[in-house]
Amino acid sequence: MNNQFARCLLGAALLAAGPVRAEIKGDAIRIGVLSDMSGPFATAMGPGSVLAAQMAAEEFDGAIDGKPIRILQADHQNKPDIASGIARQWFDRDGVQAIADGGTSAASLAVQELVRGNHRIFLISGAGTSDLSNQACAPTSVQWTQDSYSTAAGVVSGVWQRTQAPWFFISADYAFGQALQADATVRLTQLGGKVAGSVKAPLGTSDFSSNLLQAQASIAKILAINTAGDSVNTLRQAAEFGVAAQGLSIVPMSLQNVDIRAAGLDSTQGALVFTSFFEDVSPAARAWSDKFFARANAMPSQIQAGVYSAVRHYLQAVKDSHSDDGDTVMARMKATPVSDAYTPHGIIRDDQRMVHDMYLTQVKTPAESKGPWDLVKLVATVSPDQAFRPLAESRCPLVKK
Questions:
Q1: 48: number of CA atoms within 13 Å, CB side?
Q2: For 209-221, what is each residue's pLDDT tens digit?
Q3: Which of 21, 342, 377, 398 is deepest in the core (most CB within 10 A)?
Q4: Quick one: 237 and 378 in the same domain?
């Protein structure tokens, strides 16, 4: 039998069998936004993340292949056991195919263990520990916005170009705070810098006076504020203590635009902020941010913009593949570049890290600001190969060495 005849027989057999058509098996496409809805991170995540997901769904007219898109929401209260309990209920009882945001790092790590076993989609925007796309990576989970590695590399490198003084860390005593300090220390050591001391503060700390006194008593000249959800409170108290006037330069390690606005430009002016998004990075970003503002009366944080981008990319993959199967959809997501208001050119790597441009910005002075949300100015655009952990250094078991 020659090859041409064999191919004809194969083609006839396929035609006889009829087309194999992928389909969305659920009665709806359900995406659950799991986040801190009422706690210290609610302004940067929470209800704004729900709105961002809804805005993404609206771009598909609320349905794909005749199946309605449903956006669910829940508050995990920053507790991993509650987060995993909600996620399990969503998956097992409510037919949720994807979870977005994830909130804090510990909560997201707990949810990631569930999706590792059931192959549902997890779109991580809130959590910052780089473990999520490093040793704890999962095949159907993607880390979308910032992470501790990129933030540490960006902020430490930016400050180092200005001064090579010793650092002191006030760090949140939970997964992200610990990861960010560790990654920052590695980067600082690589540059030849020194850590003069550090203290840890539990989430929800209201009085940082003893921490600030320890920093002032050290030989440090750089005070790294690494308290995430408590950053506004820390920065205000640092201003009240006159820390800057006493020779300590304040460096917020992870600051959202909503944090800057809450703390005020008087307390944050001049600070370097490493971010994955701000409204003036492009005309598309500005247009989408203005739409968000019209509905939320606040500009989106980088986390909320990341939720929009991740949900939109997920829904596009569902539409293109005509499937809600987690593995099928993730394969399509990884094969398709990310291009939207959040980033014009992003890709999902083998370590499940969505890489994209990052931005080193500086908080404006009150005199420079032209409005309540005119908060930062661009210092430098940092390319993905400079911002994110090189694949050669990855401990993600999905990366082929």
A1: 25
A2: 999 999 999 999 9
A3: 342
A4: yes
